[in-house]
Amino acid sequence: MNDNPTQGTQPSNSYVDDYQPPQSVGVDQTSQATSPIPTPVTSDIASNANSETLEDQNIFFMLGVEDGNDEVKENFLNELQKVIWDDFLENDVNLLITSEEKVKFDELMAKKEISDKQGITEEASEEIQDALVAYLETLIPDLEDIMLEKALDLKSDLFVERINGLREYYANDATVLEKINKSEKLMSEEKWFSSAEVLNQFDAK
To answer: Which of 34, 39, 72, 117 has the most CB atoms less than 10 A away?
Structure first.
């Protein structure tokens, strides 16, 4: 959807290009790994109609794909966490640590890359991840806050992708485009529940 030629809101973060939401969570998604840091992309309960904040919304509600088995949903969330974590390691860490601190970080990353390529045991892979997280936590006190912010950024970007995709799909339907414009306006006002609710009235799967 990133090549959408129609007018619409554009995502702010490039890493959304690395992962696209499924057209339906009924389609199996295979998880490669999970982020070792909790990233509250979604809540355990349904989106709260009494709250419009992005953090309180369930991502499956926002993407209009609430129906689906738990295993597929879990795999989907694992993939989102992996995108966030990998992006953080690739693009953010070097801006947050010194050149001296980077020496050990590079050593741990080299072990991680070998682990990813060779497919070593899950236990060994987790040990490498745990060591990486433990080291970064000593260097970056607000690591958890950074990961939360990145999770919310990706969450909003995926919703924007949904809006842009629907705008392209319904380009010749004035009635639906009016609803999409309404949803986009609500989103710009940070009324995330109401914005998703408008889309789900005609697009929920």
So the answer is: 39
Residue 160 in domain: yes
Give the DSSP per-residue string, 2-21. TT--S-----S-GGGGG---
d(CA 41, CA 26): 19
Q: What is the extent of the structural domain holding 87?
A: 23-97+140-203
Q: What is the pLDDT of residues 165-181, one digit of tens each?
A: 999 999 999 999 999 99
pTM of the model: 0.75
Distant-in-sequence, close-in-space partners of 162: CB < 8 Å, separation ≥ 6: 21, 62, 63, 64, 199
pLDDT digits (tens, 9 = 90+) for 151-164: 999 999 999 999 99
Number of domains in the chain: 1
Structure tokens belonging to residue 54: 């992005």
Name the residue among 3, 9, 12, 2 with its Cα closest to residue 181: 9
Which run of H or E residues covers position 60?
A: helix 59-62
Measured torsion, CA atoms of residues 38, 70, 48, 200, in degrees rounded to the nearest 10: 120
